[in-house]
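dude i think i finally got it to work??
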Amino acid sequence: MEIILALCLGVTLSAASGFRLFLPPLVMSLASLFGDLQLSSGFEWLGTYPAAIALGIATIAEILAYYVPVVDNLLDTIEIPTAVAIGTVLTAANLGDVNPVFQWGIAAIAGGGTAGIIETFTAMTRAASTGITGGTGNFLVATAEALSSGVLSILALTLPFLAAALVIGLLITASVKLPKFISSWRRKRNRASVED
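look at this
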């Protein structure tokens, strides 16, 4: 049961990192500092004041950067692989002292995969917002993403099973919407190239 709880916590924090990279690790760091979260062996550094301060600064910088036109779309392109890496680490940090092959394998698949899917979905949402509104609506997307990351991070620590159920719902939605969005985008691109 403990491993399932840890997996729910890790996957939910990974999903939250798909919305904002540094907010979930900051929440995890603060929870560890206040004694509310026990980190896996080798991840104790995350529960230190220097880590919390660095993550706090990174979180503020990231949130503010998403309100700058053009920078927000640029961040999305570099954050997809970064989200996969951070999602993997967040899940591994919560799995406790288990076999390292299991720890990193499940962390990469469940945590990294979840973070990657959510980050890709948010990047596509921002691209659609940029295309439809010329970027003027992107601040709404940025606000929704930051709030989603914060809420999921807090839910992960307080109600991990409910949070995991929400993440499963998000993953299903993203899995249904992403192929449709990509197909629509390709049709528009092909139409534009034919018109040229």
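The chain has a mean pLDDT of 86.
im so relieved honestly
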